[in-house]
Amino acid sequence: MTVTRLSRRSLLKSGAAGLATAALPFGLSRPAMAQEALTLGVVYVGPRDDFGWNQAHAVAMEILKSVPNVTVIEEENVPETDACAKSMESMINLDGAKLVLGTSFGYFDPFMIDLATKYPDIQFRHAAPLWNKDKHPANLGGYFCYLNQAHYVDGVAAALSSASGKIGFVAAKPIPTVLSNINSVLLGARSVRPDATVQVIFTGEWSMPVREAEATNALVDAGCDVITCHVDGPKVVIETAEGRGVKTCGHNASQAPLAPKGFITGAEYKWETIYTMYADMLAKGEALPNVVVGGYHNDMVRNTPYGAGATPEAIAAADAAIEGLKAGKPIYVGPLKDNAGNVVIDKTYDNYDPFLDGMGYLLEGVIGSIT
Amino acid sequence: MEQAQSAPMPRLLANPRWKAVAETVAIPVIALVTAAIVFSGFLLFLGKNPLQFFALVWQGGFGSAFSLQNTLQRAAPLILTGLAFAIPAIIGLTMIGAEGALVLGGFAAAALAVPLVAAGSPPMLMLVLTAGMAMCTGAALIMIVGWLRHGRQVNETIASLLLTYIAIATMNFFVEGLLRDPASANKPSTVPIGKDYMIGPIPGTEVHWGFAAGLVLAVLLWLLMSRTTFGFAARVTGGNPRAAQAQGLPVGMLILACSAISGACAGLAGFYEVTAIHGQANASLVAGFGFTGILVSFLARHNPLAIVIVAILFGAIEASGGLIQRRMDLPDATAAVLQGLIFVILLASETLQGRIALFQPASDKRA
Amino acid sequence: MSPDEILTVLIAMLGGAIRVSTPFMFVALGETITEKSGRINLGLEGNLVLGAMLAYAISYHTGQPWLGVLAAGGAGMFLGLLHGLICSLPRVNDIAVGIAMMSFGIGIAFFFGKPYIQPSAPRLEGLPLGTWSDNPALRQALEINPLFFVGIVVAIFLWWGLANTRTGLIVRMTGDSEASARALGVNPIRVRVLATVAGGFLAGVGGAFLSLSYPGSWNEGLSSGQGLMAVALVIFARWNPLRCIAAALLFGAAGAIGPALQSVGISQGYYFFNAAPYILTLFIMIASARSGAASQAAPGELSIVK
Fold first, then answer.
1. CA distance C26 to C34
2. Which neighbouring-strand residues pair with A39?
3. Does residue B265 share a domain with residue B120?
4. pLDDT in tens, C269-280
5. B15, B84, C59, C74: which has the fewest Cβ within 10 Å?
6. Hey, are the CB atoms on B169 and C86 less than 8 Å from each other?
7. Domains held by chain B: number
8. Is the pLDDT of residue A33 over 60?
9. Burial (0-12, 13-18, 19+ Cβ within 10 Å), C161
């Protein structure tokens, strides 16, 4: 694990362009492949146009489709059961796919691990930082954008655009990725407004529109005047909040058009950075790196352009926060307590420290519980 | 009819038994062809080539060893959940709780596996115990419904649906709470049972043992329901519960037994999902197999043997769905439209039963 | 919980009851008409989803949300007609066809609904009935969509009409005994087809509420089984339109418990709070079952209660 992390850290410093050269030396089995025709399979867990997670991937995938000699084949709404393994295998067996991208968290273990073992000549890449050099096949790998950095910026802008300092967060499930986004919103908000709070409601499902709307209403009723979220498709949350006359921060993709009055900014993935890099390397016939991760350092996340809900001071502070993140300013400045009063973060951690990948707590200032 | 008797085929049909068999085969075939024609019209309307479509269904569903195994693997849970609906249906109950029994059964198996694996139990013992646990849990869930139905006249359809939602909430509560593997950070799951304890594929294939279990159970339950006193009593009760009660049949016990079989089948499907596919219990267990099983059973007219065939048909459509998305640039919902169309037309074709003169016994005037 | 927090939860439940109940109400009322005639249409989930998609699409293209509501009703009538006609063939099982129609309707909705996931369509405006209050939560809870009142009017009309009109009598008689309906010169098949079409219409309108009012958006996860649950609520409501309203309101209120309790800081076991509607319904059913009233109220020809 350390090896991966170290190489990743060094990659981050050299930026996106340097990623390719500094990559771990496992690659496509035949180096000259992309000069020949290459078929690339992509599997999505939901519809490609969900205004969220899947759409963010699908839009960025257009870049790979533009590479000469590369054929992109896609399947949407593939559940995290053996159906995903069978879909990928079908792409390999029936369409001749040589590179398979799995874009949902639950595809990795056991399905993509087993497939990579079974098909050593095929390259597999998975959209999460789960691959471990010591445990997993060399023809498998991962790529991930640390979206919590953009949510930190959301928090900064939200706190300075809010009257009450109470930010509402509609969350799907209490898992580390989501918790990290919630905690980052809080830390961003508190960095400019120490009395800010974040109130969270878990819906328990990645996509459950009625309950998401109910949760949004409950948060507004509880006095929150900025709402943000982490669910698969944030459209309902943003539209409901806009309808209630409160401000919003987006998630996954740009939701600015949905909230012409109250939109502040939003956290967006920049998968195209990774996919452009993959496309360039494939066109040159180079080996793909096993692991590509990043955030504001290397242009892998962004914030949606400010909407009408952002105040001038919020914009100024958010822009400053972005510059800080680009320079490597840490988000988690320890020691920090969780909302039950226990010290959970003993010291200041780098934004990519693996320690933070496993967080199972809400920080002091977040109203809510994860059980 | 008289003239036709000289030809070989109708001579075969002269035997009433063969006529019945021919009818059972011919009517679904007519229905499938009709569905194919209607769906072709739909594709032509969209400017797509129907021939390419059906060639892809064949290629993706049966066209190669890989495709066929893909189909059979997808059929495996549907056989079991189809049986889970069929057995109560034979006794006249519409139980739609197989989804809940599958999820809770799978969860119980995974939960029991954790201490067994930790204690170093032999894999075989662990599998037998967890399979039993899954079946008992599923059976218990559906028996609650059966008991509520018989003892308290609570409608079994709504009770089983409600219990399904409650079962899923229960699984999620434990998987994300008490029984969560701390290492399963971003996808809350129970502790994985590990490769050594998982069920491998049937030798020489890539299809997991759940398919074989489904086949065996289908045959056993077919024998039970059509060749034993128990099955006879169940069918009598299904035909007319009041008459059955009046004749002194133990209706309550029969209902409980059928509920137990139903829940055990669905729980077993959950067991295979955990021990052959996922290796742990998590939200991926809620995949809709239980609800698809309802349709499988109806299309098979609750006949355990026919369920196997219908489940394979379903598996093939699902297995080829991805290929169709990729090659023809059709959305994923295409397979759902085709499925819906096939179901509707197949079910409507039941009306042809006993109405095609060719298949009726010469003396029968029903037609 | 402090009194303030209790008030918050109660207001949220009131708002939830009004906001969430409407689709349940329409589907349950539609199913009541169909079941009163002696048929069961389990496929109204398909009508609901197709109605939601079509309402959103029409509202988007025309800018007229009410036109979308009508189109949703029309789509529901079409599916209802299909179900009604197919089930009129001898030997065809209505429950099975219902499930098949459900997957057909959902398939069609998803197939043609892809282009409408992203655009924003004009929505149905609510009536601001809470302006007298200075509590914003209460004001929001009382911003009520006109369809909610339409549903209540339809329920009262159905309750009165089934008991007191000739049409109502014919429907009930067909549902209770096909033989006696025939004896009086009624064509039971025609009655059942029409009852299924009417039921399909209402279910489609219920779908329009989902996409055009609350949550007010079209996507593939929109329904999460409301249509199926509403059909089940009819049995719970014992085929009484007024009880359908009560059941829908109760179900909606219970659905608001989970998010509301979390908003006042009670979030332990939120999975069970989120399952509250199902748990509550089950307990009420068990508690009220043995009275025998349920079996008396059931239409005699209904396959599900035979």
1. 13
2. A71
3. yes
4. 788 888 888 998
5. B15
6. no
7. 2
8. no
9. middle
- Per-residue confidence band for C294, with pLDDT thresholds at 50, 70 and 90: low
pLDDT of residue C293: 56
Asked whether residue B266 is domain-assigned, the answer is: yes
Contact call for B176 and A174, based on CB within 8 A:
yes
pLDDT at B112: 96
B300 with B340, same domain: the answer is no
How close does chain A come to C267, measured CA to CA in Å? 6
Structural domains in chain C, CATH included, are: 3-116+141-299 (1.10.3470)
pLDDT of residue A32: 39
Nearest to B73 by CA among C169, C234, A87, C19: A87
Task: Tell me the pLDDT band of B339, cut-offs 50, 70 and 90.
Answer: confident
Q: Quote the distance between the C-alpha of residue A72 and its chain's center.
A: 22
Same domain, B355 and B229: no
**pLDDT score, position B10:** 57
From the list B158, B334, B340, the residue facing C285 with the nearest CB is B158
Chains that touch C (3 or more CB pairs under 8 A): A, B
Query: Is B56 part of a structural domain of the chain?
Result: no
Look up residue A265 and give its two tokens: 């900014």
What is the residue range of B272's domain?
Answer: 72-327
**Per the CB < 8 Å rule, is B188 touching A106?**
no
C-interface mutation test, from B78, B158, B175, B328, most C Cβ less than 10 A away: B158
Q: Which residues of C touch B152 (CB under 8 A)?
A: 286, 289-290
CA angle A9, A30, B320 (to 5 degrees): 95
Predicted local confidence at residue C290, as pLDDT: 62
A39/B contact by beta carbon, under 8 A: no
What pLDDT, in 10s, does the model give residues B138-169? 999 999 999 999 988 888 988 999 999 999 99
Q: How far is CA B139 from CA B97, B143, B266, C219, in A?
A: 11, 6, 8, 36
Same domain, B322 and B342: no
Could B154 and C285 be called an inter-chain contact, meaning their C-beta atoms sit closer than 8 Å? Answer: yes
How many contacts does A have with B, using Cβ atoms within 8 A? 81
DSSP string, B337-362: HHHHHHHHHHHHHGGGTTT-GGGS-T
Domain assignment present for residue B57? The answer is no
> Measured between CA atoms, how close is A35 to chain C, in angstroms?
35
| CB-CB under 8 Å, C120 with A257 | yes
Q: Which residues of B touch C282 (CB under 8 A)?
A: 159, 162-163, 166
Average pLDDT in the B22-40 region?
A: 89
